Amino acid sequence: MGSMLQWRLCSLAVVLVSCFLAQEAVAQRPRYMDPRQPVEVRVNDLLSRMTLDEKIGQMTQIERGVASPSVIEKYKIGSILSGGGSEPSYRATPSQWMSMTNSFQWGAMQTRLKIPIIYGTDAVHGNNNVYGATIFPHNIGLGCTRDPNLVRRIGSATALEVRATGITYTFAPCIAVCRDPRWGRCYESYSEDPEVVRSMTTIIDGLQGQCPAGWRGPYLESNRKVLACAKHFVGDGGTWQGKDMGNAIMNYDTLVKTHMRAYPDAIAKGVSTIMVSYSSWNKQKMHANKFLLTDVLKGRLGFRGIVISDWQGIDRISDPWGANYINSVRQGINAGIDIVMVPFDYVKFINIVKGHVATGAIPIGRINDAVSRILRVKFQARLFEYPYADNSLRTYLGSLQHGALAREAVRKSLVLLKNGGGAKKKLLPLNKYASKILVVGAHANDIGLQCGGWTISWQGGRGATTKGTTILGGIRQVIGRNSEVVYQPNPSAGYAKGKGFEYAIVVVGEQPYAEVNGDNLNNLNMPAPYPALIKDTCSNVACVVVMISGRPLVVEPYLGYMNAFVAAWLPGSEGRGVAEVLFGNYEFSGRLSRTWFRRVDQLPMNVGDRYYNPLFPFGYGMKMGLKRA
Ligand code: GLC
After folding, report:
1. Among 188, 192, 265, 310, the one annotated catalytic
2. Which residues form the signal peptide (predicted)?
3. Are the CB atoms for 201 and 266 separated by under 8 Å?
4. Residue 164 sits in which domain range?
5. What is the Å distance from ligand 1's center to 403 Cα?
């Protein structure tokens, strides 16, 4: 018998034995590891195998600064997060981010049951923690676009840029309905109108993928998508005087119709997680509100994903914060919280939960419900099959296509509030072939200022904090080659006079802020030197004022000086989008997503209120009347 035949027979034998062994391996592996099994079968099989320590570990989310593969392995930690601005190293690259998330995942893979972690970040207007990521307009501007399809596309782009850094989960979208612009987080809200906020939940389709009709439960389409988080449940935008983490005083009907309105849409879209609000409803902390978190959210609304606490949200159940942490842990978990964003003192948290389970203060049934929800999300996200980052996605961070999408979003978010009128002639569209143009205001030439909070750092910051094009840079790109642009951040009085400027572009606005640091309970004035700068510049030359802000500010006293006034909100990294509209490459299409008040003593004042006397009403927005279509 030839050696060829012998070789072939040996090869065949090897193949047959390999197939047998492979089948044996499949037959031996636990059912929860079998992707062919239905998700609920996998959930129940895995849950039945877990120890109490493993279950509590899944309910524990810790900050990356205290995490390591060994900590994850030892405490069976199920989730890690980056707090605002928390990165593996200064201006970390996608590869460095992936190296970090993969190292944490490796730690999880060393545990007995190999349950993968999820890694969360606040990618609330792009993957904004990461240097070089595309920074999209904040939600207040997106609400002015009234373009759900655009917002869905932004979600898709954001998902790719988040996955480009090996991250699987974003704490977005914020579907707060901000009813008072004194709230420091009003720019995170799409609108004062719950119907506009509802329409913007299409971002979940972009972030997670569009779930099939009739789908029930958390959804994730592929490893090019990320788990989303509708937040903050519920009433975060309705607190008294807009106080962050304050008290929402209203009856249940108003809470449901105004502040809960968008949650059924988010749930129907398969949102994987919902974050609890720090705020209180009629003086009861949301983090301890079993009626709303369990009876309403999980019961009536049928939410089958993960309810996650906010950062130290459990600690803040008691006043002063942390005063009775042991009792707060019991209250929060029994109220229906499934994952606790601890985020630092995880050993203490884990031991307290174990103690409460031992005494029956936290029923094991509550633990099993929480862990079942966590596992359901992780199985649906196919993290057991694909636990590690896909290195091929790293090139999506800051891609040219995403930059173009962001410019489109900037253009559509701009709202034209004045263009001529009274003694002032119409000025927009600006003449891009003007011989001499003056640009003033620090906000014209500052990426950090035009991005606002939640950009690179938690609070945001001034200067070249990340890549992008300033508004001034955009102006220079759009105008004619023979036009001269003179830029003065804060010129002396009378500077604009007699220098032959055809017009001035005055870019004013707020300093960056996030959360409680943005609360402005007393006044919403434009910060100095802008009121004086507007008066002086616009008294000496025709001017358009562009406002970079997270909310409407007091502007009525200065409107008469302006030929034109544009609300640009917090446009993000693509400042060219502002110039493209100012110079008439595109028409204005934005409409106010929130009422522009006259004076702070009118607040709160929202569309539909009996007393409604705004400077510019909700839905207002002019066009320049461009000749071409
Ligand atoms: C913050 C915010 C929340 C954010 C979380 C994690 O305090 O309230 O919106 O997702 O902590 O950064």
Report:
1. 310
2. 1-27
3. yes
4. 120-342+364-396
5. 26
